[in-house]
Each structure stands twice: as C-alpha cells, then as structure tokens.
C-alpha cells in the first residue's frame, strides 16, 4: 500500500481539495465505469463548523474534481449514529443542496439491507449498497473521541453497518470490531477534513480550527497521522494497532512519505469554545498561523490529560510571527520564536514535537 500522505493548509476548501487530489492523482486510481461511493462523517445533524461532520465544501470540491475527469456514477452514503436521523443530517449539513446541485444521490444506509460478513470469528452486518460500490472514498473528520481518543478513517466506516451492529460494536469494546470491519470494507481513497475538528468529542462543540486537508490510500497510515496531529502515538489507539496487526495497512508514520503542497499562512482566530479557550489561556500568541496554533492547542490538551498542564501556569508559552527577531527569556513554539531562551523549531512544529519539548525540555 502507498506510504504517501499529501497535505495542504489554508482556508479555501475548493482550492485545497483540488491541490491534494491532483498531487495524489486520484483519477488514475479509479477504474473506468465504476460506481464511486463517497462516505462522509455525518454522525450527527450539526454543521461542520462545530467540529463533528465533514465539510460540504470539501464534498462539493471532490465531486467537481471527479466530474471534470468524466466520473459521473457517484453516490453519497451515510448512516448517522443511533440517536440521529441520516436524512436530517443530510439536510442540516448541506448535503441535500449538494445532491440537487450536482445530481448526486444521497443514500441512507439505515434504510438498506445488509449481508453478514465474518472476519476471524467476528460477524457483522454490512450495508449491501456499500458492498456494491466499486470505489469507496472515505472522508473522515480529524477529531477527538470520548472513548477511542481519536476518530478518523477506520472508525468512519462504522457508518457502513446496521444500527443493530453499531450497538453490538459498543458491547465488544469498539476497537477490535472497528479494525476487523476495515478488513471487509476497503477504503480505496481517504480524503480527510482537518479544517475544523473537535478537540475530544465525536459529537462536536469544541472545534479547533486546524486549516488542513490531507489524503492517501492507507486508512491505517492516515489514522496514525491523525493520532500524531492530536499528540498521540499510533500505538496509543488500540484499533490502529489491531488494524495494522491484521494487515489492513501500516501504522509506521515515521517512514511515511508526507508531501506538503502549501504551507499555512492564515492567522489563528480566538477560540470559540470554553474548553479550547481554557487551553488558549496558557498561550501568548502574536500573529500565529492557524496550523501552528492548533498543533499547540492539541499538545496542551494532551498535557492536560496527563495532569501536567497546571505546571505551565504563569509560564506563558509564546507563539507567532510577532516574535520574529525578538530575543528574550521564555518558552517559544515554532521557528518564529527562535530568539527565545527555550524554543522548539519547525514551521509549524508537529504536535508530538511540541509535546515532547514541553514535557522534557521545559519542565
Ligand atoms: S513558525 Fe511562525 S510562520 Fe511557521 S507556522 Fe508557526 S507561526 Fe507560522
């Protein structure tokens, strides 16, 4: 499987999606005349700006790309979580408009029939429509999850099973069945919405503006990268480890070929949720780029999980282009703050690098 992840940063989803798809050459991967299934994450009926659901602008951009290369047999498939209606999610999240504009049907997996597939003794009811699709494009959101810490490509396929099966997955502890599900249903291509995902909850409400979109063909590698963006090691997430062990893909993020198309130049905005605001209280930012700032927020969230955040009270972690050329005492994040007495370089530095710096070099 390809070890490539193509990533770009910015605030224009149409341009960004096109950039990564052209770089990844998606069109060359799709068999001629096949049915293409697009599987977004519409777990709840909430607009994507709240951090839970896949951006409709990204889906529109993907459809425009596909149609421009003559791929017209496209369907959008989803099943919201047990407490919500998929048709409501399609409406609230802007997918009804997409369907009308591009003539692409919406398919509610909750109303489908299912086939039982068995992997290593675990049986699961899989949507027949999903099984019939010739090329599946998985579009998860880069976000946190209250039970599994993160949710990305592997877990997004939970929307391809019956509601009864979703309940059973929970009784089985989620990790193993999620990994095994990905043995049955193959994601042929993964396009990740990392524009604005939730800090730690799959339902949204604490969005972190991250301004990134990335894609690849290995769902395990993509999820390993998502884990790293959120300050976790791939091994911290059981379902990533199991999926790697059973051959769904590779979690070797250190040897991934990460291709950056465009760097982030957008300026971080004030946090909109209380949880993110609390973390932002530890930061002294002057003109920080959104991606850099988001990586720091994720690192602070992990320090908080470890009970170490309070040690940074009154330490004021500095970040942003306003610190360029300044030489003084303090903790600085990113190459712009290289004049500070303690600094982690990178433009932007990754979440794991920031975390390690704060834990090992600062404390
Ligand atoms: S180091 Fe400076 S220029 Fe680079 S991403 Fe961070 S804030 Fe932006």
Category from helices, strands and their pairing: alpha/beta
Q: What's the CATH C level of the largest domain?
A: Alpha Beta
Count of DSSP strands: 16
Binned, the helix content reads 25-40%
Distance between the first and last residues' Cα:
40 Å
The shape is globular
| Biggest sheet character | 8 strands, mixed
What does this structure look like?
By secondary structure, this protein is an alpha/beta fold. It has two domains: 4-260, 3-Layer(aba) Sandwich (Rossmann fold); 274-362, no CATH class. It is 34% helix and 23% strand. It is built from 13 helices and 16 strands. The chain has helices spanning 13-24, 56-68, 86-92, 95-102, 128-132, 153-156, 163-171, 175-184, 219-229, 238-245, 274-280, 290-305, 351-362; strands spanning 4-9, 36-40, 74-78, 106-108, 114-119, 122-127, 135-139, 143-145, 149-151, 189-198, 207-216, 257-260, 283-285, 317-319, 328-333, 340-344. The strands form four sheets. An eight-stranded mixed sheet has the order 4-3-2-7-10-11-1-12, sandwiched between helices. The longest helix is centred in the C-terminal third of the chain and has 16 residues, at 290-305. The relative contact order is 0.13. The mean pLDDT is 95. Bound molecules: iron/sulfur cluster (SF4).
Question: What topology emerges from the helices and strands here?
Answer:
Blueprint: E1 4-9, H1 13-24, E2 36-40, H2 56-68, E3 74-78, H3 86-92, H4 95-102, E4 106-108, E5 114-119, E6 122-127, H5 128-132, E7 135-139, E8 143-145, E9 149-151, H6 153-156, H7 163-171, H8 175-184, E10 189-198, E11 207-216, H9 219-229, H10 238-245, E12 257-260, H11 274-280, E13 283-285, H12 290-305, E14 317-319, E15 328-333, E16 340-344, H13 351-362
Parallel strand pairs: 1-12, 2-3, 2-7, 3-4, 7-10, 13-14, 14-15, 15-16
Antiparallel strand pairs: 1-11, 5-6, 8-9, 10-11
Helix pairs in contact: 1-2, 8-10, 12-13
This protein binds iron/sulfur cluster (SF4).
Iron/sulfur cluster binds at residues 264, 288-289, 292, 320-321, 334-336, 347-348.
